[in-house]
Amino acid sequence: MIGIFDSGVGGMTVARAIEQVCPGLPIVYFGDIARTPYGTKSPETIIEYCRKNTDFLISQGARMIVVACNSAAATGAEALRQHHAVPILDVILPATIRAANVSRTGRIGVIGTRATIQSGIYERRLQEVRPESRVFGQPAPLLVPLVEENWLNRRETKMIIRKYLHPLRQKQIDTLVLGCTHYPLLKHLIGPRIGRRVALVDSSLELAGYLNRFLEERPQLREALEQARQPSRFFVSDLTDPVRKLAERIFGRTITLERVDV
Amino acid sequence: MIGIFDSGVGGMTVARAIEQVCPGLPIVYFGDIARTPYGTKSPETIIEYCRKNTDFLISQGARMIVVACNSAAATGAEALRQHHAVPILDVILPATIRAANVSRTGRIGVIGTRATIQSGIYERRLQEVRPESRVFGQPAPLLVPLVEENWLNRRETKMIIRKYLHPLRQKQIDTLVLGCTHYPLLKHLIGPRIGRRVALVDSSLELAGYLNRFLEERPQLREALEQARQPSRFFVSDLTDPVRKLAERIFGRTITLERVDV
To answer: B242 to chain A nearest CA, in Å?
Structure first.
């Protein structure tokens, strides 16, 4: 099985994309709703949560881990790689590769939680793959609660998005990375407000494509992951009605969510 | 010492009010920033956190507990009373007494997190103290992240407050309970938008006054609490810059925050 964890439900956009791009790959998902959000918390706390989540997924049969939360990936993925023997993919690398390839001018914007932007990980990774690029990070912390409230078409949401994007417009970026797994649900508002000529990079979709290519080159790993022959399972550390609704909206079907303490 | 816990920094408005109303009473505070917010989480999870927080405060010398978070008080205070021998006050009772006394028409509004409003606790308690009252609850979940982002005077914040208050205006309430310890920081926006003729009840302030009267009637308990002769201490389960800033704004001075795992 492939283990996926996120601070909450946002990572389900990654799980859904993996389902579509790699059908037949059994998923074990863990959403840490009881301690969500991660993006406002300190690196030490995020790293501790990442370790616990990874241990849980491995105990459930995961042979590979996807860190589906940008805040966790930004601060915790390296610690996990040092600590665990299984392959660990995170949502940040595929998005940076895509952004580096798609940008004409090399002026790339990134929106994300405060933890993600403050970590500077997008800047560092983009400059590794495209050294002359200029990367402009913008924290957009209110977008997560707005998505979780299902305010996906409200005037206030549009105004707040415009406010967050304003500094990036002034920097004349030509590519914008949606550096949080909640943001794909706001793509329809972000696109028109950043401008039609700016390419949007969706970190959830990019991860699924990257994983597919990664497994094509590693048939033995793919076989090990598929070996489980179990149906996918979705665990959460807390369960409320808004969580159920958001999960249903992301998957377009009813998902059985199992509550677990980690 | 008097133990105070909250899901985060909001409860510091309670600690500050207690400092002012009961000077000389040593405080041990715990803010559960690592797992904040509580208001979007399920009753089971909130109760578990309340127990852990209370155990920690007692281990630090607390002889009485104040549940300074409305979401925790709404779902966890009763479980704590059954479980612990120390007196347990919560922010909800003093606010309901005040609202019942101050309202002329008995039409009382309450704003709070989803957990607080869904628990129905304000309705139940208000109807105990004033049976003919009509209570209108309105969840206002985005106000907590807006306060935590320090968006205290933004146009978007004003619009969102107006949207939340609109149904309560239509109910022609004459009293509004601020049923979340973050909301006192938005009083200056809530007042004009609900209307000058509506009395605002601040649950943090009411708790401090209630506690003072409670201890006046129990001189032995007061003595036991003051016995510690220790300075007040403020613990948090996570520590970031916005938390430090918000604490400073609430107290009007620098506060030493000690990080602890609970």
So the answer is: 9
Across all residues in chain A, what is the average pLDDT? Answer: 95
H or E stretch covering A13:
helix A12-21
Confidence of residue A202 (pLDDT cuts 50, 70, 90): very high
Cβ distance of A35 and B34 shorter than 8 Å = yes
* CATH code for the part of the protein at B93-202: 3.40.50.1860
Q: What is the pLDDT of residues B90-126, one digit of tens each?
A: 999 999 999 999 999 999 999 999 999 999 999 999 9
- CATH topology agreement for domains B2-91+205-259 and B93-202: yes
- Note whether B145 contacts A145, CB cutoff 8 Å: yes
User: Which one of A148, A151, A238 has the shortest CB-CB distance to B42?
Assistant: A238
pLDDT for A149: 87
Amino acid letter, residue A185: L
Q: Which of A124-133, A158-167, A241-250, B213-222 has the lowest mean pLDDT?
A: A241-250
CATH architecture, range B2-91+205-259: 3-Layer(aba) Sandwich (3.40)
CB of B34 less than 8 A from some CB of A: yes
Q: Where are the domains of chain B?
A: 2-91+205-259, 93-202
Mean pLDDT of B213-218: 96
Distance of CA B201 to the CA centre of its chain: 12
CA A165 to chain centre: 20
**Active-site amino acid positions of A:** 69, 180
Contact A37, A92 (CB under 8 A): no
HSE of B240, CA atoms in CB hemisphere, 13 A: 22
Fold of A2-90+205-259: Rossmann fold (3.40.50)
Give me the half-sphere count of Cα atoms (radius 13 Å) on the Cβ side of residue B202.
18
* pLDDT of residue A229 exceeding 80: no
Among B7, B38, B40, which would you mutate to test the A interface (most chain A Cβ atoms within 10 Å of its Cβ)?
A: B40
Residues A51 and A205: their CA atoms lie apart, in Å, by: 25
Cα of A8 to nearest chain B Cα, Å: 12
pLDDT band at B229 (very low <50, low <70, confident <90, very high): confident
- What length does chain A have? 262
The sheet with strand A27-31 has its strands ordered as: A88-90, A64-67, A2-6, A27-31, A233-236, A257-259
pLDDT band at B179 (very low <50, low <70, confident <90, very high): very high
Interface probe with B: pick from A47, A149, A152, A153, most Cβ of B within 10 Å: A149
Q: What is the pTM of this model?
A: 0.89
Distances (CA, A) of B95 to A208, B38, B201: 51, 20, 6
- Say whether A142 and B141 touch across the interface (CB within 8 A): no
